[in-house]
Amino acid sequence: MNAIAALAGRAGPLAGHLVLEMCGDEPSGTFGTQILADLGATVLKIERPPRGEPAPTVLAEGDPVPRDIAYAFGLNRNKRSLCLDLKQPRGRDVFEALVRIASVAYDNYTPAAAQRLGIDATALRAINPALICCSVSGFGQTGPWAALPAYDATIQALGGGMSITGTGDADDPPVRWGNPIGGIGGALYAVLGILVALRRRRAEGQGASLDIALLDAQLAMHAYRVPQVHGGARFSASPHRGGNGAMPYGPFLARDGRWFVLGITAQFWTKACEVLGHPEWRDDPRFRTQEDRQANESALNAAVGAAMQDADADEWQRRFVAAGIPGAKVQSIPEAFAHPHVALRDMLVGFDHPIGSRLKVAGDPVKLSAHGGAGFRAAPGLGADTRAVLRDLVGIDETECAALREARVAWWPREGEVQTRPSVV
Q1: Quick one: which H or E segment has residue 37?
Q2: Which of 121, 145, 175, 401 gives 139 a disulfide partner, CB atoms 3.0 to 4.6 angstroms apart?
Q3: Which strand ranges, in their side-by-side order, compose the sheet holding 208-213?
Q4: Region at 252 (left for phi over 0; alpha for psi -120 to 50; beta for the rest)
Q5: Where are the alpha helices (DSSP H) in 324-371?
Q6: Does residue 312 surpass a pLDDT of 70?
Q7: Separation of alpha carbons 101 and 86, rounded Å
Q8: Is the pLDDT of residue 357 over 80?
């Protein structure tokens, strides 16, 4: 356990747990394992050796960071990279040695692809019965669509969420959520399942097989809407619709052309009337109660829309914050991370890395009192940790390591850091 913990990218409550990541570059896998790495697990990103000898990645001072490198840094901090060819017998031997000491194996392949690679739960738990195998796929391990590939947009469409996004106008298409919630939702449920399985493993010594379907995650996140729609309620895309009928609710244009989103539920209506400059709305029979506002939604939205033209979005933000009622300017991602509240929450962090001063990533939203966390380790270059893993976890000496590299069973760069990488095992 000490050797495993020594390779962790960050201290945390999962110290000593080895996680084998066998995923493509999609958030359903890489985002989930990054959360585990943030919590102190030692995550080995098992990657296919490259063809030839790729040159080290060198970025000149002032050059922008390429999008593929930025993408990798945003999903792979605190991990280690092991380049290993699972299709060669000696590579398989090394892999199985790691399986024997691992706590978790995490993949995001279709069931058939995982079986072809020999990384499915049946194969791995035959080697280590106490292993927790987590498979995240579009449609799960069972059912008529289990073999089909899936991407974020198709999962959002099938899951019903896309039917309630967009403007709702006849000629406007539905809109997928800007972040890949299809993959991210699956990753979050996967991490939840892994943490539960680890607790059970500690108490009972038993492993587990987790079957996480991205479509299931999308359906589960409808939550309260499920009983409502099956009870006859209808939800449709609309720019101003409130979640449970709260009004006014949603985006309105401010004087400067910026969108400002209101979230006025019943308890905030009186203050909202004052902030919007129309205290008389409190006694207007069209708007007095939430039911009145629902019945007169068009008139209410028109009145609020007109009132919002009296000030710019920043001024509305100041007024809503001063009054303590919910309202927010729609910000770009850079604007969101520049917000002073965000800075105080340590949600924008950099690395001790040659490109660290030019590349920032989102911080850790889990603020755990017993483990403050001391920054992040940068995402690893391709094969950067192969020799350390072979030596410290598998017990292979330097002579044999060199032989494995010569045979292309394992790989690491001779010099520098390589960020150009194959996308799958």
Answers
A1: helix 27-38
A2: 145
A3: 208-213, 132-137, 104-107, 18-22, 42-47, 79-84, 410-411
A4: beta
A5: 333-338, 340-344
A6: yes
A7: 17
A8: no
Does residue 230 register a pLDDT over 90?
no
Each residue's pLDDT tens digit, 20-76: 999 988 899 999 999 999 999 999 999 999 999 999 988 888 788 888 889 999 999
| Contact (Cβ atoms closer than 8 angstroms) between residue 148 and residue 159 | no
Are 271 and 139 part of one and the same domain? Answer: no
Token digits of residue 80:
């280690």
Predicted TM-score (pTM) of this structure: 0.92
Domain boundary among the residues 302, 329, 356 is at 329
| CATH code of the domain covering residue 178 | 3.40.50.10540
How far apart CA 131 and CA 115 sit, in angstroms, is 17
Domain membership of residue 397 (yes or no) is yes
DSSP per-residue letters across 211-267: EEEHHHHHHHTTTTHHHHHHTT------SS--SSS-SSEEEEE-TTS-EEEEE--GG
Report the pLDDT averaged over residues 262-282.
Answer: 96
Task: Report yes or no: 261 and 325 within 8 Å, Cβ to Cβ.
Answer: no
Residues 214 and 281 grouped into a single domain: no
| Average pLDDT of the residues in 383-390 | 97
pLDDT of res. 240: 59
pLDDT at residue 242, as a whole number: 57
Say if residue 45 is in the same domain as residue 83: yes
Across the range 325-346, mean pLDDT stands at 92
Strand partners, 22: 107
Work out how many domains the chain is built from and give that number. 2
> What distance in Å separates the CA atoms of residue 305 and residue 293, rounded to the nearest whole number?
14
Give exposure, 405-415, as e/b (b: 16+ Cβ within 10 Å).
Answer: beeebbbbbee
Same domain, 171 and 306: no
CA-based torsion, 369, 37, 384, 94: positive or negative: positive
What is the strand order of the sheet 259-263 is part of? 249-253, 259-263, 327-329
2 neighbors 35 (Cβ within 8 angstroms): no
- Residue 300 is part of which domain span? 259-329
pLDDT tens digit sequence for 399-411: 999 999 999 999 9
- For residue 109, what are the CA distances in angstroms to 119, 131, 268? 10, 18, 47
In a domain, 146, yes or no: yes
Is 14 in the same domain as 139? yes
Residue located via tokens 């303590």: 324
Residues 276 and 382 in one domain: no
